[in-house]
Structure formats: structure tokens, C-alpha cells
Amino acid sequence: MEFFDVVRTRRSVRSYKPDVVPEEVLNRVLEAVRVAPSGSNRQPWRFIIVKDEAVKQRLVPACGGQRWLAEAPVVVVACGKVFDYNRGGYMGEHSMLVDVSIAMTHLILAARNEGLGTCWIGMFDNNEVKKILGIPEGWNVVGLTPLGYPKAGEKAFTEPGPRNKLSEIVSTDRF
Amino acid sequence: MEFFDVVRTRRSVRSYKPDVVPEEVLNRVLEAVRVAPSGSNRQPWRFIIVKDEAVKQRLVPACGGQRWLAEAPVVVVACGKVFDYNRGGYMGEHSMLVDVSIAMTHLILAARNEGLGTCWIGMFDNNEVKKILGIPEGWNVVGLTPLGYPKAGEKAFTEPGPRNKLSEIVSTDRF
Q1: For strand A74-81 and strand A139-148, is the pairing parallel, antiparallel, or unpaired?
Q2: Is the pTM of this model over 0.95?
Q3: Minimum CA–CA partner of A97 in chain B
Q4: Using CB atoms, which residue from B46, B55, B88 is nearest to A171?
Q5: Reported confidence tier of residue B159, pLDDT bands at 50, 70, 90
Q6: Which of A49, A162, B35, B114 is the most exposed place for a label (fewest CB within 10 A)?
Q7: Cβ <8 Å between A169 and B105
Q8: Contacts of A21 in chain B (CB under 8 A)
Q9: In order of start, what are the domains of chain A with their CATH numbers?
Q10: What is the spatial order of strands in the sheet that A45-50 belongs to?
Q11: Closest to A51 in 3D by CA, of B156, B170, B150
């Protein structure tokens, strides 16, 4: 698809078909993640592809009971390696949130390009998800998303919801 | 451009032509920012478009003396509103780093789609940049980027630098 059409029609999808995501499609999405930029090219990320039904079900309560999460054939868990790069002089060991969010955004957009729905989940219990997936010390979960074909098909991809106007989020030379 | 070509050929550009970025091009890039997703659709961001030569020059020492930053006709400064959403139970008031990084990634990719170079700058002094641009308390700088046409033209956009293999960044069902 044209780049801008991807951006303009990406929506958070909360209802999925059980249809399997073909390996070659999944690999194209992951390739978009792989080439993402990061500070000093550190690539402080790891993406866990959860397909096992029992594991998916265990993730639901760790994500505030959002059951539709497990409807999708795949749940992706984006993990970041903790390091104290201290971007901007104030981020400390949270600096990796920036890098992992870049890579996750590549994933979300690449999925839309393949007709796959996603929904960035920010409400989760880091410690619980770490236990379920065996994520070691020194790593944290940055976000999760279901990945699958929307129940509504292409109709799931429409203009985004309400947004602030450009004049409200952009200024010139001063804040 | 096709979505995947944008992702695959986005490079950090550190040498710019002085040529002005036409308003309609800049607006298309900012529109991609505007529609970006964020937690609970909070849109906790503000983007400052720095065009004033004197202001650009003042940003150089606040970004570790990276002079090529000011070569570009525009420097974009991405700001985030501090709030304690505490994503994952550990991010605290750094949660906004995730949202602003999503929007900034939209900007970086949309710029490439328009033939514009960018370079995400993570080395900066938050307090200094805030002083220069009058950024109020309760907001922090998440990142900056020059925005302009690469001195090398389209040749600036090539395959990305070395990256880890998929097998090194992806696993199934467990970390």
C-alpha cells in the first residue's frame, strides 16, 4: 500500500478472526521491526510471538482481563533491555522505551500494510507477563498487541478517531 | 511510496541541502504525526518546528555540538506532556515516552516518503532545550530531528546499516 494510506487507515482492532497468519506474512511484518532505528543502533529489543492457546489465555488476566486479546491467532509481546543511556538527562533506564516504541510502531504499521489488525496494549502487569513468558531480569515489557485478521475485514480500517487539530499540536520556533 | 520501501530505505541523514521544505510537504508530514495512536488517545505531544536560524544555532550546543543539525532548514523538537499513567506498573511518569515515540516515528517515516531526511537525536540536554524554546514545566523533550533534503539526494536513502538477525530478536511462546 501507499505509505500515507497505511498511516491514515490504521485502527485499533478489538475483534479478530481465528484465521492463521501465514509465516511469510508474519515474516514481512517482523522484517519491518528488524530494520527499525535505535539510539546508537543498540536494537535493545526482543519480540515474543505467542501462538500457544494456553499461554495466550494466561496473558488475558495480566492485561486487565481484555479477553479479545486472545481471539487473535498471535499475540506479540515487545520487550526492552534495560540500560541507563539517560537520554535527555532525565530518562535514566527508561531510555529504552523510546527505541522499543519505534520498533513496535514499525510492527503496527507493517501489520496494517498486510491487512492485519493490531491494538497496542499499554495496560498490563509487567511482572506477571515476565513470569508467564520467562522474561529475564534486565528486561521489561514495553507493550503487547494481538495480531490477526479483523473480524470486520477491510472495513475495520477506516479514518482514525478524533484527533487534535494541527494548530493544537504544532508551533513554530517556540513552544 | 510503497510502505515497505519507506521502511527499508529510511536512513539517518547527517548532511543537508539548505533548500526550503514547501509548506504542503511539511503539512503532509505533520498530518502523519497528527493521526498517530496514543494510550487512551491522550495525544500527549507537541511538535515545535524550528526555522529561525538563530534558534537553530542555539540548539547545536544543547545537542552535544552536532553542527549538521542546523544545516537543515527545519529542526523538529518533539515534546511530551508528563503524566503518571505508569504503564506496565513500572514506567511512572515516563509513560509518555511511548506515545511521543510513536508520533515521532510517524514523522520520520512520513519524511522519508516525501524524500526528506531526518536523524533522530537522542543526545540532548532537556533543560537547555526547554530554556531555548520556552517549553513549560510539565513537559519534556523526547527527541529532535533535522528535517530537510539530503545533500546526497535520493542516494542518501539506502538499505539500513547492520542489524541483528530475526532469529536474534524474535522467539516463540517464551523469551
Answers
A1: antiparallel
A2: yes
A3: B98
A4: B46
A5: confident
A6: A162
A7: no
A8: none
A9: 3-169 (3.40.109.10)
A10: A117-118, A139-148, A74-81, A45-50, B170-172
A11: B170
Contacts of A33 in chain B (CB under 8 A): 169
ipTM over 0.85: yes
For cell 530475526, what's the residue? Answer: B166
- Rounded to an integer, what distance in angstroms lies between the CA atom of residue B88 and that of residue A126? 5
Residue B63's nearest CA partner among B135, B11, B127 is B127
Amino acid identity of residue A42, one-letter, is R
Long-range contact set of residues A87-91: C-beta below 8 Å, sequence gap at least 24: A87/A39, A87/B122, A87/B123, A87/B124, A87/B143, A88/B122, A88/B124, A88/B125, A88/B126, A88/B140, A88/B141, A88/B142, A89/B124, A89/B125, A89/B126, A89/B127, A90/B126, A90/B140, A91/B94, A91/B97
A89/B142 Cβ within 8 A: no
Q: Retrieve residue B155's grid coordinates.
A: 542516494
Q: Do B10 and A106 touch (CB under 8 A)?
A: no
- State pLDDT tens for residues B129-151: 999 999 999 999 999 999 999 99
- Which residues, including other chains, have CB under 8 Å from residue B152's CB and lie 6 or more apart? B13, B15
Nearest chain A alpha carbon to B55: A173
Interchain contact, A97 vs B113, CB within 8 Å: no
Nearest CA in chain B to A159: B35
Q: How far apart are CA A114 and CA A128, in angstroms?
A: 31
Q: Residue B142 is which amino acid?
A: V
